[in-house]
Amino acid sequence: MLEIRNLNVHYGVIHALKDVSLTVNPGEIVTLIGANGAGKTTTLRTISGLKKPTDGAIFFNGSDITNTTAKERVRMGISHVPEGRHVFYNMTVFENLQLGAYLRRDKDGIARDLEMVYEHFPVLAQRKKQLAGTLSGGEQQMLAMGRALMSSPKMLILDEPSMGLAPLFVQEIFDIIKKINALGTTIFLVEQNARQALKIAHRAYVMETGSIVLSGTGTELMQSDEIRKAYLGG
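The structure corresponding to this sequence follows.
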């Protein structure tokens, strides 16, 4: 579904991504792990069209999308939940969810997806008239994910979905990610909680200083002594 070939990204003189290549197949959960500053968020921003690469190519469902706009990528089926959630604080939960479907014109489909989001995240149904800024961090993360699902994505990109959340919410978020994937949505996940991410991932990549240094199944990386020492606390 997604193929990145020899991707290079610069911020001025800083070489943030160095010949990054990776693939995500339909129906997979693929995770990208690495230390802070490794280039994970830059990778996601480049995939969704928020950052232009210096060199390399990005293909989605066989089409070269390297030079397409972020809006065109949403229309093609890529939806990005950014680090920090970025919900619209002064709008209601329902209004935030409506914005997720802003490119769609299929009213019946939008209504069905809204019900699906409420099934995944019952708290959003309970608080649909509440301002998003009054929700807890965990509830805002659910809203950000629900808003992304309202675009009816083929691939959902998640950047640090568990960051800053209480342990109870962390487990709930990962359970929901698995459920969304089981219903047919491909997931590309960046996550500091490497243990949780590798538990649910079909495949994983490890990034260090802008380069992919290791890849394998989630299970293989969980069992790697190198990964355990660096990312799993022993």
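The longest helix spans residues 167-182.
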